[in-house]
Amino acid sequence: MKMLEGAHRRYNPLLDEWVLVSPQRMQRPWQGEVERTAPPAPPGYDPACYLCPGNARVGGARNPVYDGIYIFDNDFPALQAAAGGGEVDDGLLRAQPEAGICRVICYTPRHDLTMAEMPVETIAAVTAAWAEETRALMARPGIQSVMVFENRGAMMGSSNPHPHGQIWANACLPNVLAKELEQQAGYHERQGECLLCNYLAQELERGERIVAENAGFVALAPYWAIWPFETLVLPRAHQGRLDELSAEARAQLAEMFQRLLAKYERLFEAPFPYSMGFHQAPAAARARPGWHLHAHFLPPLLRSATVRKFMVGYELMAMPQRDLTPEAAAARLREMGGG
Ligand code: H2U
Ligand code: ZN
Asked: What is the CATH number for 271?
């Protein structure tokens, strides 16, 4: 396939949006420069951490002395089960109550581990908990979608290094899921095939953006990636939701996450900041059969753990732009070992 060497835009079929790519600005190869600011390793248990076993939370509750995974309702939830108050529908001024549930999931009692450092069995237990939460929350009346996500590192606004993620379940469809639904369902209605199954087949054939593969999952730098080292993790089989994965597939997902995160840590030579989230099929009837489960990893970093990319100026006002091509980013991540 042709590789465009000058400024060009690439199409994101999941969002029906374009990204500006300017490879001519990256003439020089990767210099491997690293500004080391590795913070001191945190302790295994931190008496001041609101997520460690046995500790008091900010909201007043106390965590049990848990020894596996611990999940609780967020003490400061952005969504509330009983949102009320009626609608505002006044010309261009519109508002609707938004009901939902926010949960916090601690992956392990160990305060000091990153997911890259956890045994694959521990990550597999986390994938089982994500699946169970998805099943239980989707079964609640009125819930449209369950978003499993993680903010890691102070740069992404996560104040606490304790390995944890969040789960938000909404009664309305969040913006990004609404766009992905339109795109995936629309593609399936037109072509009679799955957008991401077809995309994955094309990427596997080309190979140049593949980062890692195992029997069940593929991690790749999407053709239309916005963030320098953005990746997409896809099941090879057409699956819609986390709770539809077999135990074997969940173990494969855990292995893929461990491998991908270890690559990122080697690339940046430090535990690195990122946002990760699963896009799983919402309850809407239109979501099936076109929706293909996937996870996005969006690290804000450019060259090292301290050089970040900001989405500002033209990117904030017009469209996202990148210099490093996704092909070059995938090659860097592939080189980081662990295949
Ligand atoms: P991050 O994943 O961005 O670090 O956020 C942690 C969440 O933990 C955040 O949503 C919640 C915050 O509301 N939290 C509690 O539920 N209880 C606490 O005692 C502190 C933080
Ligand atoms: Zn802790």
From this structure: 3.30.428.10
